[in-house]
Every structure is written in structure tokens, then in C-alpha cells.
Amino acid sequence: MSALPVLGAGGWGTALAVNASRNGPVTLWARRADFAGRLRAERVNAEYLPGVTLPGHLEVTAHLGEALGDAAFALVVVPSVGVPDLLAALPRSLGVVLCAKGLAPDGSQLTVLARQLGFSRVAVLSGPNHAEEVGRGLPAATVVASRDSGFARMVQAALMTPALRVYTSEDETGVELGGVLKNVMAVAAGLADGLNLGDNAKAAIITRGLREMGRYLKAEGAHEDTVYGLSGLGDLVATATSRHSRNRAAGEAMARGEHPGQGGKVVEGLRTAGLLDAWATAHGHDLPIVRAVARVTQGKWTPQEGLAQLMEREAKPERH
Ligand SMILES: NC(=O)c1ccc[n+]([C@@H]2O[C@H](COP(=O)([O-])OP(=O)(O)OC[C@H]3O[C@@H](n4cnc5c(N)ncnc54)[C@H](O)[C@@H]3O)[C@@H](O)[C@H]2O)c1
Ligand SMILES: O=P(O)(O)OC[C@H](O)CO
Asked: What start-end ranges are recorded for coiled-coil regions in this protein (predicted)?
């Protein structure tokens, strides 16, 4: 049985590797050789997922070819900015499971980019899945989406464990974009936390944020109900309310006048907000929470100005 390559040794790559190790051999790829050496020696990823022991049979390498071996597919778990370069280095015969929740630097969906590069078996994995909990084996559910339902089932079989329930979907776009947008909404929720706006405001952000996500998914051709699934509503709730979320914590820090950085860990929503806001402006779409988060992260509005812009919008029926 060939080992499953997990490409990216941050928090999520490490948690997925630990989970999949319950089913068979796994090789975790880290881009830095010294870091891979530390993981091999210490059997813990102290930098990105402290407190989770790496099983003895989990291999770690910084050699991409060694990680890939003769595997049929790989999990791609580096931050979205790094995905284009990593995909470019992979053989096109490999199936790729995109696990980042962000867009390529030019604003493209990562699944679209993968197809443009010539990969024929493409899937996306997304859901309410904090690495800190999945790594510890706490119960969670997630979705693997692919136009190729046979490929989705293959990935499902590799990742489904007693602690991680994996559903399949054919709505690649809807599942991918749910994960992309919920990070921006989580930054908004964090801004509300940092401004001490209370529970009512948080509920309003989640609910109106979900409506905004639905409008965007529909415009991009996703299925109508995907936004109400694990990768949409599920992940929005998990991220906007969680003490683990780096996106929520980044918003909270900004509202307090602090730097949004999360100790070197990726905060996808900060970059995504600007890309989505540019898309909305170019296409004449109304994404007000995205716009507020983008302008606050770009320093164009204060958090209080962002709040005022949302509260002073024109009166309208709820369904819009
Ligand atoms: N942490 C979570 O709970 C979680 C859960 C689901 C999805 N995700 C998504 O997974 C992706 C990765 O997040 P993470 O939490 O593992 O990040 P992280 O911040 O914990 O770690 C990022 C890792 O990627 C490496 N890296 C950074 N830039 C790279 C590049 N250009 N090429 C190769 N490697 C690079 C870093 O060295 C580090 O090992 C993000 O898109 C995130 O939204 C994270
Ligand atoms: O810590 P965050 O905000 O990047 O969120 C992690 C996961 O995406 C939650 O599902």
C-alpha cells in the first residue's frame, strides 16, 4: 500500500496526517529540511500543532519526490498563496485534494487553477475542522467535493476514521467558496468581539454573512443548498465563534488596535477580503460585510467606520 502524501506541515496538514495515519501509511512533506528533521526527531509539531503526538509510523520528509512515491493522489495543505507553486511542481497524473481555504494570488479559485495546470483529478476538502481538535481525535465532520465522484469516494475512504466523518459532494465550487468566504466573515465576527458589540451583533454577522456567502456562491455557479452544509453554515459557525480561529482572533486584535498577525500562522481571511471586494466591485455585486472587512484590513476604514457603514445601509426586506 503506497503512503498517502500530505503536502504541508502546518497545523492542518499535521492534523490531517495524524488522522489519516489511522487508516494506513502517510508521509508528511515539510518544505524546510530542518523543520522536517525536527518533526522526525521530536515527534510533535511544536510550532503549528503543539500537544499532538505524531504516530511512530508517520514518515516526515522535505523531499517532494520521496513524499509522493507512487501515490495516486496527495493532500495539498499549504496556505493558498503557496498552492500555485506547489501544484506547478507536481506530476499532472497525480490526483490533488485542495485543502486551503483561500484564493490564488490572482483571485482564482484553486480548483480552477489546478484544472488550468492540467490536473484531471481534482477535489477540495472543507468543513468545520479546527486542526487543534481534529489533531486530538475529537469528533468532526467534513466534505470532499469533486466533479469526479469516484475520486471523491477514494479520498473519502482514505480520510474517514472513527473521529472524522467525511461526506462527498459534486459541488466543488460551492464547497471551496464556502471555506473561502467564511474566513472573511470570521474576521468580521472578531472585529465585533474586539469592539464588545455583544451576542446580538455576532448573530447578525453570522446570519447576514451566510446570506452574503449564498449570493456569491450562486453568482459563481454553486448549488443553492451547499451554503447550508458543513462547508458553509457549519464552518461559518465553527470559525466565527471559536477560540481556536485565527481569522476571528485577527479581527479581534484589529479592533483593539493591535497587529492582526497570529504568530506566523496563516490568516487567510485578511488577504481574501481584498480579493473578493475587488471581484464584487468589478462585477457590480453587493458584498457589504466583505467590503467592510477589506477596507478595515487595508486601513481605509476604522473598525467603527466599518460598523457604521453596515448599520446605515438602506432599509430593505430580509430576504435580500
Ligand atoms: N488550521 C486549521 O485549523 C485549518 C483547518 C482547515 C483548513 N485550514 C486551511 O489550511 C491551509 C493551511 O493552514 P494551516 O493551518 O496548516 O497553516 P499554518 O499557518 O499552521 O502553517 C502553514 C504551513 O505552510 C508552510 N508554508 C507557508 N507558505 C508556504 C509555501 N509558499 N509553500 C509551502 N509551504 C508553505 C509553513 O511553513 C507552515 O508549515 C490554510 O489555507 C487554512 O485556511 C486550516
Ligand atoms: O483558524 P482559522 O480561522 O484559519 O480556521 C480554521 C478552520 O478553517 C476552521 O474550520
From this structure: none
Domain residue ranges of the chain, discontinuous segments joined by +: 4-170, 174-312
Q: Is the fold of 4-170 the same as that of 174-312?
A: no
Centre a 10 Å sphere on the Cβ of residue 100 and count the other Cβ atoms it contains. 27
Q: Kindly report the CATH number that applies to the domain delimited by 4-170.
A: 3.40.50.720
* Per-residue buried b or exposed e for 144-170, using 16+ beta carbons within 10 Å of the residue's own CB: bbbeeeebbebbbebbbbeebbbbbbe
Residue 202 known to be catalytic? no
- The CATH topology of domain 174-312 is N-(1-d-carboxylethyl)-l-norvaline Dehydrogenase; domain 2 (1.10.1040)
Q: In angstroms, what is the C-alpha Rg of the chain?
A: 19
Ligand 1 centroid distance, CA of 13 (Å): 7
Give the residues surrounding ligand 1 with Cβ less than 6 Å away. 8-13, 31, 48, 77-82, 86, 99-102, 129-131, 265-266, 268
- The three cell numbers of residue 202 are 455576532
Checking if the pLDDT of 269 tops 90, the result is: yes
Quick check: ipTM above 0.90?
yes
Annotated catalytic residue, options 182, 202, 300, 316: 182
Average pLDDT over residues 71-88: 98
Which contiguous run of DSSP H or E holds residue 167?
A: strand 164-169
Would you report the helix, strand and coil content of the chain in percent, each value rounded to 5?
50, 15, 35
pLDDT tens figures, 214-252: 999 999 999 989 999 999 999 999 999 999 999 999 999
Query: What pTM does this model have?
Result: 0.98
Backbone angles phi and psi of 167, in degrees to 5:
-100, 160
Q: Which of helix, strand or coil describes residue 176?
A: helix
C-alpha cell at 94: 497525480
The Å distance, Cα 81 to ligand 1 centre, comes to 10
What is the pLDDT, as a whole number, of residue 1? 78
Cα–Cα dist 100/280, whole Å: 22
